[in-house]
Recover the amino acids of this structure.
């Protein structure tokens, strides 16, 4: 068996482009598509074939990888891709779609005779570009040999959560991880907002917690983006963070849990997006603390 596979990447935004580039650099033929073609074009320099349609992108593919906005977008694009799909193709679904949407996508895969893997990833722009993502994956064991070199190209670690992708175990674990990331992001913004409201230099706060149990590299990184005004290009946008926060709330509600912090965090992202920060790094949720523009 060859360890080189033709991989179709549908969706070449922040994460998808980095993943496609690393897959191509690992020697796998890549066929890329994005609804805005200009976002996919730079991948041609890495040897990727840029397709005009999803159906063209998946022709001859051994593996189809979807990295789109949400479950609805994935279903729409895969329906467009159907004329180019052949039975037995491995479908790696890496969009953060939530458990309910994952079950619907798995059912669609079964209808089309595709081998479906629920495989969201942990990480943002920098680890994606470095091929250091963590892949959370669920799916049948017999197809995993095909995926090992592909996952190895995009990630430093693969965590298998179960053999049945339709159960959404990988997507549920991803929501759990994202709930912590989004809460930490919101907390970082509020710490800076409170510091400025109290006229306290944020550096004094960092000095206070330095090297102790309250210190956190992620906190420093997000506040650093705000202090330095480096919210673009984003690692993870405000709009996408709000979408994920809503998925977390919906999943919790179905499971009988009330997440008051997650609800407040989702509202902060919504407010920041409404203020014009939707396409900036999610650290821009900071601006939701104020009615007037802040530095």
């Amino acid at each position: 068996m060859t360890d080189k596979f033709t991989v179709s990447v549908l969706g070449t935004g922040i994460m998808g482009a980095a993943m496609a580039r690393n897959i191509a650099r690992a020697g796998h033929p890549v066929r890329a598509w994005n609804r805005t073609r200009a976002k996919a074009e730079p991948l041609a320099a890495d040897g990727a074939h840029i397709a005009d349609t999803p159906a063209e992108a998946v022709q001859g593919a051994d593996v189809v990888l979807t990295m789109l906005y949400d479950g609805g977008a994935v279903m729409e694009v895969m329906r467009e891709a159907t004329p180019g799909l052949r039975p037995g193709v491995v479908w790696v679904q890496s969009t953060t779609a939530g458990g309910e949407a994952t079950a619907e996508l798995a059912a669609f895969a079964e209808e089309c005779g595709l081998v479906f893997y629920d495989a969201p990833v942990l990480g943002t722009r920098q680890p994606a570009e470095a091929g250091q993502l963590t892949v959370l994956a669920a799916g049948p064991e017999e197809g995993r040999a095909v995926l090992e070199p592909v996952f190895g190209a995009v990630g430093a670690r693969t965590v298998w959560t179960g053999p049945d992708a339709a159960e959404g175990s990988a997507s549920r674990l991803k929501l759990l991880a994202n709930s912590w990331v989004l809460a930490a992001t919101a907390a970082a913004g509020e710490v800076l907002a409170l510091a400025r409201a109290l006229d306290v230099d944020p550096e004094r706060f960092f000095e206070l917690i330095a090297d102790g149990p309250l210190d956190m590299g992620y906190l420093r990184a997000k506040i650093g983006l705000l202090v330095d005004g480096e919210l673009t290009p984003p690692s993870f946008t405000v709009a996408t963070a709000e979408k994920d926060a809503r998925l977390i709330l919906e999943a919790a509600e179905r499971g009988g849990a009330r997440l008051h912090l997650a609800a407040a965090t989702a509202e902060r992202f919504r407010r920041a997006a409404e203020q014009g920060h939707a396409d900036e790094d999610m650290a821009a949720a900071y601006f939701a603390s104020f009615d007037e523009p802040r530095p």
Remarks:
- The radius of gyration is 20 Å.
